[in-house]
Amino acid sequence: MLAISHFIICLVVRTAEVTMAKNSSGLADNAEVQNERSKSLSVFGVLISPKLRASQLSFEKALETLIEIANLQKSLLYSFHQLQKVEDTKE
Question: Residue 40: how many CB atoms within 10 A of its CB?
Answer without folding.
Answer: 23
